[in-house]
Specification:
- This protein is an alpha+beta fold and about 600 residues long.
- The protein has three domains: about 100 residues, no CATH class; about 160 residues, no CATH class; about 180 residues, no CATH class.
- The chain is built from 21 helices and 16 strands.
- The protein has a four-stranded mixed beta sheet.
- Helix 1 packs across helix 9 and helix 12 crosses helix 16.
- It is elongated, with a radius of gyration of 32 Å.
- The two termini are about 60 Å apart.
């Protein structure tokens, strides 16, 4: 299903490289004339974000080697390669350059008299015979910038241009371009391709996939389809690719499509999963999906906000063109796993279904936010950072981000580890102070409260065993849940303490929040007695505020928190989550703008 969808995507994208061609980042271009003289060696490295990368060109792919071979191999590419193969520079460069020249000679022998090809072959022979000329070439002044030297030393990619051409590569000259294609080997086995249904040479090795990260900023080459030889993965006497017969053209098509998606804006990183998405036909959702979940770019900080706002307001304004679409949409999450790519999740739905699930996700997250929070919608990264140990995404459980993304897309309950992760971070940060200001850090942050509220409402909607009501966006004084009311009670007790001692450094939050939210019977009776002492003092100093605080306490207790029911010895994890929401929403109620004559 995955390979078929990628194959179909390739068929409808005429802009993708055709059979026998791939897109590669080229670091250097050597300009040669018809006599084999080098006119220039131009670095093509440019800065993209924090990284220096080469310029992307379409270059020949002569089979699996185009994405497979390493610096140590003997399988050169055609008309481009790393500097060791193409120019003979570096360890074993002489041997590799011999393979490179032989591949060029064998492919084009007797097929073309193009002057660019003649000049290129003369140039390669010339530098092979005179290594000093190559060293002189590599030490010219335009190659001395640090980022250029790094590319040279790490084996940057090289291709060639004819001096009479302005910008096109030798590989793109009409007489040469027409001769490049998928090479047919007499030993290759013919069969019916599983993807195209046509008879074709079966790919012994499928091309590798680039852009799946083993660690941030370090793309690795992985295989979506691979059978390790003589390791128990063969069956019925078949070896490698013949176990799942995919034609060379179809294998080229699906790998080209996937590599294109991984390098495009239709890709986002979700934890360790490199996530790509595409529609069966052109759809606006292809450009919007990453805006819903990714951090916005620095030059357009409102990009994600505007996309989500459009999504949420579409049913109200009648602009439902893309959201009611029946177009099939695919989302694929891939993660590194040794030499292979592991499928973290695969989701197929119509654009309308997908838009509805995403809209529900953002509606579930809606909760009253502090006045200092300007961005109303939380990205996926912001939510995951909120629950990550030490604010480090690498310390999250490996499958959490992928499971979270999958539940957003299909509208199912969020993973249980989201709630436990949020509660753990809240308890960990309850007494932490900012190292610079010395002030207490916020432990129930806007992101954590939104995530807990969304998790609870999803759980209520899907498996509501206790007939709980969904949590509202702002304070709900009628909510009878014991956890929610105890969270409100704790917030009021903390506020009373702050009313009596405005400059207090340590409140009951720092010492008792974790235990009050998990084992209230062990803590809250003591806090209530202390609260009565504070209330006595408040009655003397500020009678009006005392009356308001007393009403708040009575309102919380009126449903039996400390009467018929009493304080429970233990709260379940969902009720601990409701404790957090009750505390958060009650605190936000205290900081609402005051009306004339009122006291919060």
């Amino acid at each position: 299903m995955i390979l078929q969808a990628l194959y179909e995507y390739y068929q409808r994208k005429p802009s993708l490289p055709r059979e026998g061609w791939i897109e590669k980042e080229i670091d250097f271009i050597v300009v040669v004339d018809g006599q084999g003289n080098c006119r220039a060696l131009n670095p093509m490295i440019e800065r993209v974000g924090r990284n220096w990368v080469g310029k992307t060109y379409e270059v020949p792919a002569i089979g699996p080697q185009a994405l497979k071979h390493s610096m140590a191999g003997s399988d050169p590419n055609l008309l481009w390669d790393n500097i060791s193969f193409a120019l003979g520079h570096g360890i074993n460069g002489k041997r590799k350059a011999r393979h490179f020249r032989k591949e060029l000679r064998d492919w084009f022998r007797g097929k073309t008299d193009d002057p660019a090809m003649l000049g290129l072959r003369r140039f390669l022979v010339h530098i092979a015979r005179r290594p000093a000329q190559l060293e002189k070439l590599l030490n010219t002044s335009n190659l001395q910038r640090p980022e250029v030297r790094r590319a040279l030393d790490s084996g940057g990619t090289v291709t060639f241009r004819f001096s009479e051409d302005t910008d096109s590569l030798i590989a793109h000259r009409p007489a040469i371009h027409s001769l490049v294609g998928l090479k047919q080997d007499a030993k290759e086995q013919l069969g019916v391709c599983l993807l195209s249904g046509e008879r074709d040479a079966i790919a012994r090795l499928n091309n590798s996939i680039e852009g799946i990260y083993d660690k941030p900023g370090a793309p690795a080459r992985k295989y979506l389809v691979a059978f390790q030889k003589n390791m128990g993965f063969d069956s019925y006497g078949k070896e490698q690719g013949t176990n799942a017969p995919i034609g060379k053209r179809a294998a080229f098509a699906y790998t080209t499509a996937l590599n294109h998606l991984l390098a495009s804006k239709q890709r986002m990183q979700v934890g360790d999963a490199s996530t790509v998405f595409w529609a069966a036909t052109d759809s606006k959702m292809e450009s919007l999906l990453s805006q819903f979940f990714d951090q916005p770019p620095e030059d357009n900080p409102d990009q994600g906000t505007n996309a989500v706002k459009e999504l949420l307001e579409a049913p109200l304004t009648g602009t439902t063109a893309i959201y009611d679409s029946g177009t099939r949409f695919h989302v694929l999450g891939l993660a590194p796993n040794a030499a292979r790519a592991a499928v973290r999740f695969w989701y197929v739905a119509t654009v309308g279904e997908l838009a509805g699930h995403i809209r529900q996700h953002f509606e579930d997250l809606e909760i009253v936010r502090p006045q200092y929070v300007e961005r109303p919608f939380l990205s996926l990264k912001a939510l995951l950072l909120a629950i990550s140990p030490l604010d480090d995404l690498d310390k999250l459980p490996p499958n959490l981000a992928g499971d979270f993304m999958k539940s957003i897309l299909n509208g199912s309950a969020y993973p249980h580890t989201l709630l436990t992760g949020a509660l753990r971070r809240i308890h960990t940060d309850q007494a932490k102070k900012d190292k610079k200001s010395g002030k207490h850090k916020e432990h129930v942050t806007y992101a954590r409260a939104a995530l807990v509220k969304a998790w609870l409402n999803r759980q209520t909607r899907t498996t509501n065993q206790n007939q709980e009501t969904e949590i509202t966006m702002a304070l709900d004084e009628s909510n009878p849940n014991i956890g929610y009311r105890l969270g409100r009670l704790f917030a009021v007790l903390e506020k009373i303490q702050e009313d009596v001692s405005p400059r207090i450094n340590t409140t009951i939050r720092d010492s008792y929040f974790g235990s009050a939210s998990s084992t209230p019977a062990a803590v809250l009776p003591t806090l209530m007695r202390r609260g009565q002492n504070h209330m006595t003092k408040l009655r003397k100093e500020n009678p009006g505020l005392y009356v308001n605080r007393d009403k708040q306490l009575q309102s919380i207790h009126c449903c039996g928190v400390d009467g018929v029911v009493g304080y429970p010895p233990v709260l379940s994890l969902p009720d601990q989550g409701r404790f957090v929401i009750g505390y958060y929403q009650q605190r936000q109620e205290f900081f609402k703008p005051k009306t004339e004559g009122s006291q919060q």
